Amino acid sequence: MIPRHLVIAMSVLLVAVLGLSGYAWHMRKTAAATPVASTDTRPLAPPIAGPTERVTLYVAHDDNGSLRAESAQIPLPSGRQQRAEELLRALLSLYLDKSSPHVLGSGADIRSVFLVDPGVAVIDLNSAFADTHRSGVLVEELTVTSLIYTISANTPGILKVKIVVDGKERDTLAGHADLSDFYDVTAVNQLATLLQPTQ
């Protein structure tokens, strides 16, 4: 015969197991029904100290394939290279916004901009920028033109621009825009002028 205290202990343990199982099932169901909040995966840049300046950003608009000048007041450091990086980061912040006229993938960022004399700029994008970029001739050209026109219009003396991804050369941005060679700033600026809407 099984001792009475052992039967009571087993009954209490069985009730506890059933209760915990029911609680776990309820929590799992609640967790599955709760929507997952999207998180901002962009790297956090250090705050820029210094006075703000009015700059012109050339923003791509997918709806009509245009490039529009938009004035912005942003803090800019004194160094020429850091200024170029902040200009492009300000442009990217517009593209990463929910109401963006030219959507870029989550996590897209500018790793660095190198200004090499005489007149050469190298824009280093992170892999998320290129890997999540939408494929298409127009959207890729709008991105490239927007980056180059913004940096050259606000940083005098740039004649050629090279775009790399994670510090390495890449054939295309997302299958169409050629990244294998340097872009001539004069030619890009002429294209950007054609892409601007007529008033």
Describe this protein's structure:
- The protein folds into 2 domains: 1-34; 52-195, no CATH class.
- 40% of the residues lie in helices and 21% in strands.
- The chain has helices at residues 4-33, 80-95, 127-131, 137-154, 185-195; strands at residues 52-61, 66-75, 110-116, 120-125, 160-165, 183-184.
- The protein has a 4-stranded mixed beta sheet. It has a two-stranded antiparallel ribbon with strand order 1-2.
- Strand 3 and strand 4 form a beta hairpin.
- Helix 2 (80-95) packs antiparallel against helix 4 (137-154).
What is the spatial order of strands in the main beta sheet?
3-4-5-6
Major β-sheet profile: 4 strands, mixed
Tally the structural domains.
2
**By helix and strand content, what is the structural category?**
alpha+beta
The number of distinct β-strands equals 6
Q: Runs with pLDDT <50, length 5+?
A: none
Instruction: Report strand %.
Output: 15-25%
**Count of helical regions:** 5
Mean pLDDT: 85
Shape from CA axes?
elongated
Please write the string of helix (H) and strand (E) elements.
HEEHEEHHEEH
Which percent bin holds the helix content? 40-55%
Distance between the termini: 98 Å
Taking Cα atoms only, what radius of gyration do you get, to the nearest Å? 27 Å
